[in-house]
Input
Amino acid sequence: MLKLRDGIIELYRKVATSLPPDVEDALKSAYIIEENGSNAKQALSTVLENILLARETSRPICQDTGVPVFYVKVPIGLSQVELKDTIIESTRIATEKIPLRGNAVDIITDKNTGDNTGKGFPVIYFEETHDSTLTIDLMLKGSGCENTGQIYKLPVEELGAERNLEGVRRCVLDAIHKAQGRGCPPYTLGVGIGASKDQVTRLAKDQLIRKLTDTNGAPVLADLEKRLLNEINQLGIGPLGFGGKTTAIGVKVGVNHRHPASYFVDISVCCWANRRGRLIW
Output
């Protein structure tokens, strides 16, 4: 597990200091369409410069290095206990070496552990697969944008949101209206729809792992994603809330079956620094 530990440390470094190409390309495209001399264009110019400097100096893109969220696809027979221990050890070392800001705070004592480890921290999701390789996805989820997320229980009378995809659409637009610029847009949005609150919260965050350039396998959801992205970008909130044409660079929707009596929708909001990466072992 020693080599795997070192691989996870480097995954931390990559994710903390360098945005994935699809996210960076989307931000560059947003810069092009914003009006010359506008606050929006200036904000995106600063963002792009920050991305370049972080990569060149191997320093974190944002001072809030967030909550580490791991999605681990495990081949049959590989110990999840050992993998968890390795991830935790890697987290401690990466926090010191990169460095990452210590963000794990004890609920009872209010003390920061200083090494990004603690009860349920980092967040680790395991899935056993028939694949022969171990796949580890890491997302560093900033808490400023995390705080702007919303969960809805349809129907919502004040939004005119019924238990259907039109109701989902209204919830997403309401969530972004409430967020305004507090979560550092341009946003990437993950939307989860399903039977229970815990299920859709996980599902919404799962969507943030998807590449911005992918196409939803369900045509009706692909159309909803495109429509929502277009409508959100007409709200005028703009980069960092300064106004402009680009409030979001991606909307991704995931669904599970629901119970006849329940229809939950969760919107997970990610700031412009959608920090994610993958290690295949």
About this structure: Helices lie at 2-17, 21-33, 39-57, 80-97, 143-146, 165-179, 197-206, 219-232. The two ends are 11 Å apart (CA to CA).
